[in-house]
Amino acid sequence: MPPTAMSIDSSTPSNHAASSNQAKSVPGAGINPLTGAAQGSYEMPWVEKYRPQVLSHVVGNHETIERLKVIAKEGNMPHIIISGPPGIGKTTSILCLARELLGPAYKEAVTELNASDDRGIDVVRNKIKMFAQKKVTLPSGRHKIVILDEADNMTPAAQQALRRTMELYANTTRFAFACNLSSKIIEPIQSRCSVLRYGKLSDKELLKRLEEVCAFEKVEYTLEGLEALIFTSEGDMRQALNNLQSTHAGFGLVTADNVFKVCDQPHPLYIQKCIDHCLKAEIEEAVKVIEELWGMGYAAVDVVGTLFKVVRGHTGMPEVAKLNYIREIGFVHMRILEGNSSLIQMTGLIARLCQLMMNAKDFQFKAVNCPTA
Ligand SMILES: Nc1ncnc2c1ncn2[C@@H]1O[C@H](COP(=O)(O)OP(=O)(O)OP(=O)(O)O)[C@@H](O)[C@H]1O
Ligand SMILES: [Mg+2]
Fold it and tell me: Which ligand has the nearest atom to the CA of 198?
């Protein structure tokens, strides 16, 4: 079982085929209960099919979502920046907020620009300014909204050009930025906005959503399969849903083995075996596991990534050893990202992990054993 932080009651693989009753019990025919939207009849990627359309269906980050719900109800939206890692609902929340604030006027009163659009200084000067000047009749407390998605890759010059526009047209137009790194948004824009930070979704939140989607799509799964999805996606709902759909499409049944095959990541049980050998300073056996994984063609970065996740979730090792292991794994991760991803690098890591568990006196230089000149 992949060692995730989450504990699930059942330890034996149980098959939870979604019963047709669950699917039939969907309330409000034609309305998807996970998103609040009308269901399309054609096949869509599940990430889009299950993209929430109203704030109350967005999972996780409760406090922030609650604040957005208050804004949606009362209007007078401030300029906002939502920042956080990928796939956790930033774009979705902004779209939900705009939809709830503007209702039928959404089409006319919202403009969305993302990284795929040209957002150079000319666009800011022309397109955004023109939109800000446009007259749209809205109820009081409602404003036109400019959504700048993936704003962290707008050039600083284009961001500078927004400063005055944001102020001049603030009585009619509000700005909503979504980005991964708020530090890439220039200070003057940050100071004009409320900055909301989203965190990764918890294992529990991911599990609940995955179970709901499985029930809805009638996917057969084992709990270990869902745990594996959570383990590989690391709090990223988009990745979890994509991997679920790929595993279902490729294998039918969603089990841990099938998920790791689809994600092309080494099975944590293998890695666990390797760590357990390291903890006993059994270097030969530990290296053998790494060589096997190497032989299977796994990339060094994936092996090291899984090593980190397994050590982090390891419940049976002393805290000090865990800290030292994570430090060593971190150094090797850095070297791999710099391009040094050889088997020797990996073997060196294993040697250090074993050495950490050995007694320092085993390494003392013994002059008596030294051949004399
Ligand atoms: N909090 C969430 N609740 C429910 N579904 C979610 C959530 N977060 C992400 N998803 C799913 O993942 C998909 C992508 O989410 P979204 O576009 O909001 O990610 P993002 O945070 O904007 O990521 P990026 O930084 O890559 O732009 C959604 O269509 C939805 O299916
Ligand atoms: Mg986004």
Answer: 1
121-162 per-position pLDDT tens digit: 888 778 888 999 999 888 888 999 999 999 988 888 889 988
For each of the domains in the chain, give its residue range(s) and CATH number, in order of start. Answer: 47-197 (3.40.50.300), 203-263 (1.10.8.60), 268-356 (1.20.272.10)
Q: What is the pTM of this model?
A: 0.81
pLDDT tens digits, 174-209: 999 999 999 999 999 999 999 999 999 999 999 999
Q: How far is CA 309 from the centre of its chain?
A: 15
For residue 237, the number of C-alpha atoms closer than 13 Å in the C-beta half-sphere is: 32
Instruction: Report the SS3 class of residue 311.
Output: helix
Ligand 1 centroid to 58 CA: how many Å?
A: 9
Q: Does ligand 1 come within 6 angstroms of the Cβ of 142?
A: no
For the CA of 47, the nearest atom of ligand 1: 31
Inter-residue contact 174 to 79 (CB < 8 Å): yes
For strands 194-197 and 144-148, give the pairing: unpaired
Q: Which helix (H) or strand (E) holds 326?
A: helix 319-337
